[in-house]
UniProtKB/TrEMBL annotation:
The modification N6-(pyridoxal phosphate)lysine is found at K347. It comes from Sunxiuqinia elliptica. This is L-lysine 2,3-aminomutase. Transmembrane segments: none annotated. One of its GO terms (molecular function) is L-lysine 2,3-aminomutase activity. SUPFAM superfamilies: Radical SAM enzymes (SSF102114). Residues 121-333 form the Radical SAM core domain. Keywords: 4Fe-4S, Iron, Iron-sulfur, Isomerase, Metal-binding, Pyridoxal phosphate, S-adenosyl-L-methionine. Its EC number is 5.4.3.2. It catalyses: L-lysine = (3S)-3,6-diaminohexanoate. It comes from the Bacteria. Gene3D superfamilies: 6.10.140.1170, 6.20.120.40, Aldolase class I.
Amino acid sequence: MEIFNGTQQAIANKINKTSTISNWRDWKWQLKNSISNIDQFEKLTGITFNADEKSQLKKTLEKFPLSITPYYASLISTENYQNDPVFKQSFANVHELHVLDTDLTDPLSEDKDSPEEGITHRYPDRVLFHVSNVCAMYCRHCTRKRKVGDIDFIPSKEQLQKGIEYIKNTPQVRDVLLSGGDPLMLPDSKIDWLLSELTAIPHVEVVRIGTRMPVVLPYRITDELVQILKKYQPLWINTHFNHPREMTASAKEAVRKLADGGFPVGNQTVLLANVNDCPRIMKKLVHKLVQNRVRPYYLYQCDLSEGLSHFRTPVGKGIEIMESLIGHTSGFSVPTYVIDAPGGGGKIPVMPNYIISWSTHKVVLRNYEGVITTYKEPDHYENKFCDRDCENCNLELNMEESDEMQSLGIEKLLADSNDSISLIPENNERHNRRDD
Ligand SMILES: *Cc1c(COP(=O)(O)O)cnc(C)c1O
């Protein structure tokens, strides 16, 4: 049991000779004693760097700040730290200063898709609401690396109010995703207030919280916090485990509290070179997640943000991992592998190919074992013309509240009710040459 092991006791005593287990398990004590510079890191972990390494690391920290909770630092295996997944995710690396020509400061164009400070509105029915600029631990692979921690910034009620107003005035938003930074860096009272405001908006059907607290500061998931969150169901929680080593006794306790609180808990993993780019590690991770009632949700291809080049893998590595999961293990253990499109196109799922060929009446497929099989399609299938007029439709699909939105994108090309036959990029030269 890890709960308060020898390493943790030793770190706690270096922070303060009189530290106890109850200090260690107090999330505010953990935050107050978080590691933010190299000397502190050396002192608490016993890992040391030479003068040359130190001066390089200091330069890195000037650009991208450091913050590691004593708890997360206690998971580093100090004998072999260079190869340690916790060390690599949390401690600065001089490669962060290597900026490639192809790196982008805002790869997901979150700023361009921001109609209001703190809001990213990219998809038709849901928004991302950045409610804090700080985290308990600054992930070295953070996609918002340039922004997060810049200025320690917890927005005031007035600032949050603007985002709330935007959501109030935008009736198509039915799903609000609280993100940051880490939303659970806010004090309980602010979280309580924010959720009460959001859930009072009639068109907001669900709220989600994206937080890495169960991984980097599991003691943040207190009984009091769970009692507050429980008032605002349906509330979904997504966390961010990247390696099986992170599923410690304390992390298990945190996710157990959330699952017992009745929240569906999901997990988003980032595919990281030399951290988890291995089918066996990934399989172990998803198994540990589902054992603890956490559903693998997304596996992300590492973004094109500045300073992440040493973490990126080819897309083929992700496909290889998906190949090793699909069919080989329980369907609910398999995340969706996505590439968040540079330029703000949103998440694009990618998968191995399972359809080998197709004729008018047969599909040829292959399974995970390499068995090739055929599916015979129906000889007769009467297509029902759909003009999106559900009122006059005789299908049982005729739904109450058929508030069908305009069809969009590829869906539009497939729809009967829309006569578009193609989607043409703006400024297509061939089209510009036409005179009509
Ligand atoms: C990821 C993301 C969402 C949520 O996407 P889901 O696929 O619904 O989880 C919403 N808005 C933005 C800007 C995002 O990046």
